[in-house]
Amino acid sequence: MKKPLRPHLYSLPLEELRDWLAERGLARFGADQIYNWLYKNWITDPLLWGNVAKKTKEALLAEFDLEVPKIVWQGLSQDGTRKFLVRMQDGKTIETVAIAADDRLTLCISSQVGCAIGCTFCHTGTMGLTRNLQAGEIVGQFVAVTKWLKENVDVNARLSNIVYMGQGEPLHNYEEVKKSALIFLEEKGIGLSQRKVTLSTSGLVPQIKKLWDFPPVNIAISLHAAHNDVRSELMPINKAFDLERLFDAIRTIPLKARRRITYEYILIAGLNDRQEDIDGLLKLLEVETSKVNIIPFNEYPESKFKRPSDTHIRWFQKQLLDQGHTCTVRITKGDDILAACGQLKSKEDSLNLWS
Description:
Oligomer: single chain
Number of strands: 12
CATH topology of the largest domain: TIM Barrel
Radius of gyration: 21 Å
């Protein structure tokens, strides 16, 4: 029988940690001290938490896993993108990617080991689903990468943004992802702005309808097609939750003032890059509340799809811009180390694939 995973300290939002301490007769303010050590000073060894009571540390060590997920391999792309292979306490591995831009450093984090959605354009989808990640394993990716960057690149390195766009379907792991978001946003800890966190989903309609209860972060929908036949070919989930049901659910998402929903659109040569696809998008999307993010297909070994030419990508974007839509083209980063969108697939081969 496999030994069950121990609950992870990084899985506890601040208020839950306060309550946990209080239930054991320990000072609630100890949670604030612990958060300061973990997420402000990045010191993960309880023996170094000078102002935390001995009994509090003993209680934590007795019940929780306090280990940071282990980075067992990292690769650096020519464009500065870094991919990390991260091992959890049960030996399972996931990949997470740090993407540098002029004014930000974004971590693309995973929410599951593998993925059950099975999108045909996605390398991760070929893995199947092994298990969900605990909130602490999701937050642990952020902590592990932050510590690695500070120790190996720049002591002042700071991850500024998070996108739940790594391995897995975040809403398939709703409660743990929600807890991790609360931890990322907590001012006494990591303290990210709501606008710096983006939650992506392939279109799990029942879970989308629960987003009223999720922290008000940015929402991204993996759309990828404007017609049901094409979307079902790319995303089997569309057979259960077609475009009509998807957009009925999207209309229930509470949007703050001047917020938009981002629609991710993987552009694949000859499949979803035609004039009829543009016409379909114009019918589906509202100019005022939508932003289209075109993602030129990132090819990977054994993929049957191809990337359109740069000229065709610009043409597709222009058709949407001319109709008043906000439309961007994502710059491909990390494709030389299979770290670009849709290329993540955790496997031990990553340890020597790019060395």
